[in-house]
Amino acid sequence: MTVMKTASKARRRAITMGVLFLLFALAILILFTPGVEQGQKTTFAFSEARSESFVIGNLVFATRFGLYLMAALCAFAGAWQLAKGFEHVNVVLGIVAGFFVVAFLTWAARGQSMNLTGMARSSLLRAIPITLAALSGVMCERSGVINIGIEGMMLMGAFLSAVTGSLGRSVWAGLFGAMLGGALMAGLLAILAIRYKVDQVIAGTAINILATGLTSYLSSRYLQSGSLNSPPTFRPVPVPLLSRIPIIGPAVFNHTVPVYLTMILVVLIQVMLYYTRWGLRTRAVGEHPQAADTLGVNVFKIRYINVLLGGVVAGLGGAYLVLSSVARFDELMTAGKGFIGLAAMIFGKWNPVGALGSSLIFGFADSLQTRLAILAVPIPSQFLLMAPYLVTMVVLAGVVGQSRAPAADGVPYEKE
Amino acid sequence: MGNQEVEDPRTGNAQEHQGETGEAPEGGPSQAGRRGRFRGLVLPAMAIITALIIGALFIAITDESVYEAFRDGIGQGIVRAFLVIGRAYGAFYVGAFGNPVQIVRAIFSGSSTQILRAIYPITETLRIATPYIFAGLAVAFGFQGGLFNIGAEGQYFVAGLTSVFVGYSLRGVPQIIHLPLALLAGMVGGALWAAIPGYLKGKTGAHEVINTIMMNYIAFRLAEFMLDVGGPMARGDGRPVSPDIQPSAYLPQFFPNRIDLRVNLGIVLALAVAWLVWWLLYKTTLGYEIRTVGLNPRAARYAGMNVPRTILVTMAISGALAGLSAATDILGVLHFMPNAFYSGYGFDAIALALLGKSHPGGVVLASLLFGALRAGARNMQGIARVPIDITSVLQGLIIVFIAAPEIIRMIYRLRQPVKGEMLTLTRGWG
User: Fold this and answer.
1) Looking at beta carbons, which residues of chain B come within 8 Å of A382?
2) pTM value?
3) CA distances (Å), origin A139, targets A132, A296, A350, A351, A352
């Protein structure tokens, strides 16, 4: 009976997905096409004015044509899903959502030009702090410690990076300070969560409040004069050869060191988590600490290490905010990026590469709203900014596949 | 419903609750009435005192005049440090409770203007405590039902929107109707905003912590959209604020001819609601169900309770309480809603609920303390030049010490408690 139940459930889900794809097509036709005037054209530009990469021609096409094409693709996917069914329906959902976004951009840029390379570039830049925050969450939660204090760790990292960067007159000193700041807050979380077995959500909340208070207090005491709050900033370092690839080059390979560092960290943590002894132990401790302990893994040690490393990564996220452009610490400058990172972690299914992917989506939504303001699109930017949070809630509700936390996440370990 | 004898969901014995319901279900029957009740106050008191001591050290360490004095000698340095701390906490006390000498003198002078001026700090403490009580009750109510409502901040914003809308859009309605309607609008706004994560939790098991955080940010954007210049609820004079509410929606101030004494009927409402919450939790079937679900949802289900529905109701009531904090703030003090006002109540409320051990009475006491902290810190910043953010440091420390009582026990060498006194308020992401 349960088998039948799950079978009918899967069937219902398949049909829902097909209908959803068709609705996407319908939405494109209803929402976007009426606003398009006869003969209007959309221009997607690919090269940045200042880049010296091979110049690629702009893509110019009739807006109507673009919209109809995207609607047709969505409708085709929907029909196929209803008739035959896709094997990896979630992947198709992503692709169809992509079609919808392209249609949206086509409509938004009608009669005008939109620089897609610049867009990709700014999406990536905005995704970096979110990615680091999400990676911090992955590190901690994979070992079974909920980290809601990412925001506080980032804030402390940002604060100390401004101070040490100013004192040492060096971006590297700033990076070091940030790692230290994040680790300090993470150390507190680790002691509270592992040693004192405090409710981890509450420990994280305490860290957020404490970090907010400490950094705001100290900054109004010491950082107003400026000598302690004027760190240098990273300069872009184009990667030789790679940065000359059209489109991808300027978008991905012409950035500051922290951006590359983040990308390397994503790959590194992904590989470490799934292909090294440390990773296996971490995952074991996060899923079934008793079993890991029986096999001789020191649960507490693994958790301490992971939480501290998570703090270091979160601190880097704070440093990025300070050392990449603004070159100063401002009170509450993280502005919720730690919490968005938490969402990205869940959206990315507790997986480093997934975290990067979802951070990119969040970064895209963020950069899209500034572009739309320039294009004078009559959609309030606030609604676009809501999108990542809404998507997270939808994902969490299990509509788009399950995102499952490590089994022992948030459960203090007590040695028998 | 009604005034029935309420059983302890944990032991099945009909016994009086002492606000220890935030603790682990396996805690067993609490050992003794009177001494246990007294001991319940020791830890919070110790936590507050310890936080204040660390805060004092922090103030001294970050004061340059202390370092200069230490250069002249250790004795002078220590004296200077105590002076700095004394001045800071002195200003703090005066800001929170008034200058005792001035109060006594004013009372003897018999002049009402002087008395009012002398008790101004106390009225400010009460005014700030009002939204705190509601927000603290909101989070505490969630804790009682096993839910961690981090979304009080977002519920505050949405409730602010609904409440201010009723406040300024209804015209020519007598106060006796308009004011309750505006309050109700705030409650409904907060309740609806909180009910969504509650529904999702009950229906899909999606963790309310993440969902309420997400709803917070959605609420911020919503408020920004509504109140931004040119937005649907903006005043229309180029400022990102809502129109002023009608005087008929004002929560009456106690001293109508002294505008600066902003304490209003809200504080009475807050105390009444705190009692109501206590009654609901400990004297009604619904409260019993909520606490049972909070302690052990599986047992609640076997006992025939509708767990998803109870979760939904718990969140809705919690949101309504958070909504009241916004409504009283706007109807009693601000009289309009500004854009992007970061209230901070949502996060402070977590500290309040913890400090009050999720018991309505405890929350009221904790809120009065926090009201005093904020009122005092403002004076401390003005007179002793100590940044106001010291309150966040103190609050963070208080949460740490309350959540990890072992630290306090270690410092003061207190006796180890009966097993299972640890706080388990939330469960994993689930």
Assistant:
1) 221-222, 224-225, 228
2) 0.84
3) 11, 21, 9, 9, 9
pLDDT in the model for residue A49: 52
Contacts of B399 in chain A (CB under 8 A): 202, 205-206, 209
What is the predicted pLDDT for the residue at B341?
A: 57
Burial class (CB in 10 A: 0-12, 13-18, 19+), A321: buried
Instruction: Verify whether the Cβ–Cβ distance B225 to A389 is below 8 Å.
Output: no
Chain A contact probe: residue of B210, B378, B407 with most A CBs at under 10 A = B210
Q: Do B214 and A390 touch (CB under 8 A)?
A: yes
Work out the minimum CA distance from B65 to partner chain A, whole angstroms: 13
What gap in Å lies between CA A300 and CA A305, rounded to an integer? 9
Q: Which residue from B minimizes the CA distance to A215?
A: B389
Residues B320, B300, A145: CA angle, nearest 5 degrees: 75
For residues A140 and A309, give the distance between their C-alpha atoms in angstroms, rounded to a whole number. 8
Query: Could you tell me the CATH superfamily of domain A118-399?
Result: ABC transporter involved in vitamin B12 uptake, BtuC (1.10.3470.10)
Which parts of chain A register pLDDT below 70?
1-7, 47-57, 398-403, 416
* pLDDT for B35: 52
Q: How far is CA A210 from CA A189, A359, B248, in A?
A: 11, 26, 41
Locate all alpha helices (DSSP H) within B64-207, ordered by sequence: 64-72, 74-97, 100-109, 112-118, 120-144, 152-169, 175-204
- Residues B409 and B257: their CA atoms lie apart, in Å, by 50
Of B207, B399, B422, the CB nearest to A205: B399
How far apart (Å, rounded) are the C-alpha atoms in residues A396 and A394?
5
Q: Which of A188, A196, A202 to mutate to test binding with chain B, by most B CBs within 10 Å of its CB?
A: A202
Predicted pLDDT of residue A222: 86
Contacts of A235 (CB under 8 A, 6+ apart): A256
Here the ipTM equals 0.80
Which of B401, B53, B393, B353 has its CA nearest to residue A210? Answer: B393
Among A126, A150, A189, smallest CA distance to A361 is for A126
A251: alpha, beta or left? (left if phi > 0; alpha if psi -120 to 50): alpha
From-to residues of CATH 1.10.3470.10 in chain A: 118-399
Q: Are B200 and B363 in contact (CB under 8 A)?
A: no
Look at residue A202 in the predicted model and tell me its pLDDT. 84
With an 8 Å Cβ cutoff, are A198 and B423 in contact? yes
pLDDT, averaged per 10 consecutive residues of chain B (430 residues), comes to 39 38 37 53 84 90 84 85 88 87 86 84 91 95 90 93 93 90 96 94 83 90 88 84 90 82 89 96 93 89 90 95 94 86 76 87 92 88 84 88 84 66 47
Burial of B67 (0-12, 13-18, 19+ CB in 10 A): middle
**How many CB pairs below 8 Å do chains A and B form together?**
152
Residue of B225, B351, B424 with shortest CB distance to A209: B351
Q: Is B221 close to A386, i.e. CB distance below 8 A?
A: yes
Q: What percent of chain A has pLDDT over 70?
A: 94
